[in-house]
From TrEMBL:
UniProt-listed PANTHER family: FAMILY N-ACETYLTRANSFERASE, PUTATIVE (AFU_ORTHOLOGUE AFUA_6G03350)-RELATED (PTHR43233:SF1)
Lineage start: Bacteria, Pseudomonadati, Pseudomonadota, Gammaproteobacteria, Alteromonadales
Top-level taxon of the source organism: Bacteria
Protein name: GNAT family N-acetyltransferase
Residue intervals of the N-acetyltransferase domain: 3-138
Spans traversing the lipid bilayer: none
InterPro entries associated with the record: Acetyltransferase_Butenolide, Acyl_CoA_acyltransferase, GNAT_dom
The species this protein was found in: Salinimonas profundi
Any matching Pfam family: Acetyltransf_10
Amino acid sequence: MKLSYRVNEYVSCEQFIALLNASGLGERRPVDDKQCIEGMLNNSNLIIAAWHDEQLVGIARSVTDFHYACYLSDLAVHKNYQHLGLGKTLQNLTQQKLGPNCKIILLAAPDANSYYQKLGFTSHPRCWVLERNKRIKE
């Protein structure tokens, strides 16, 4: 199987949604909100995509300053391509694009929590999330 990896090349909204659904990540992403998905893609400043021919089979989508912090917003691998090292490769390629002192930060899906520990990530107890439908209290 010949895979190619592309950095910051165009990924369509439809390809991204199909991958999110095929990876299992679609249940935690706004796949029914095309405007939001388009914004997610258009405002990411580092996207590493894995392709099998012209099918998107993996993605690492990040927002970063390239020097201090990189928020890895989505790491998705199509279920038919999982356990082949694609996720690890996508993360390694992401890290290669960052400065030498830039840390990768992410929120793990519940089923993936132990995966990141095996790769060398450390858990951080002080993560806070304000959901889309909530407002900051006065």
